[in-house]
Specification:
By secondary structure, the chain is mainly β. It contains three helices and nine strands; from the N terminus they run H-H-E-E-E-E-E-E-E-E-E-H. The termini are close together.
């Protein structure tokens, strides 16, 4: 199977289906959306989670916890950030990030990224599709990136800073998020 040719198809389709134009656009999800995230079946190449941060999933990191770093080309990986900052430097890859993250930084191009929860999400590079379920701050740079979010950590909307050109940011329903997540996991 050539997953890399299809990535980031589902996230970009989701992002582009709810957004139009070149401006940052915050939209409201459809009513009656489902509310369950099912990420336990995400594909993995085994190079994901770093076990150096003790504690259960979603627990705060210890003071000595190393940031989670994910890299590569044409990868499909799952990881649990366990409260740590997470850096993704990849091309044509798909990542499924579970747990409560600190700052998540995405660099590279043609990536499909799902993040369960992040304090700050920064997307750099070009043509990345990123879906985050819960976020406080979104920073989008580069070209042609699509970022969708379900809920803000505080208040009705996350703080959004967008630079670059033709980047799109929009709110989606939890059902839309889950449908795209399921579709990418099946690739």
């Amino acid at each position: 199977m050539h997953v890399s040719k299809l990535l980031p198809a589902a996230v970009m389709t989701l992002a582009l289906s709810v957004m139009t134009g070149c401006a940052v656009d915050v939209t409201t999800p459809a009513e009656g959306a489902s509310s369950s995230l099912q990420t336990t079946g995400a594909p993995s190449t085994g190079a994901a989670a770093d076990s150096s941060a003790g504690g259960a999933s979603g627990s705060p990191p210890s003071s000595t916890a190393k940031p989670l770093q994910l890299t590569g080309t044409n990868n499909v990986q799952s990881a649990d950030c366990r409260g740590r900052d997470t850096t993704i430097e990849a091309d044509s890859s798909s990542f499924f990030i579970e747990g409560d993250c600190g700052t998540v930084t995405v660099s590279g191009s043609n990536n499909s990224i799902y993040v369960e929860s992040a304090d700050i999400l920064t997307v750099r590079g070009d043509v990345n599709g990123v879906a985050v379920k819960t976020v406080s701050t979104l920073r989008v740079e580069g070209l042609n990136n699509g970022v969708v979010w379900v809920r803000a950590s505080n208040g009705d909307h996350p703080e959004v800073t967008a630079g670059g050109a033709t980047n799109r940011v929009a709110r989606v329903s939890e059902q839309q998020y889950n449908d795209a997540l399921t579709e990418d996991q099946e690739l």
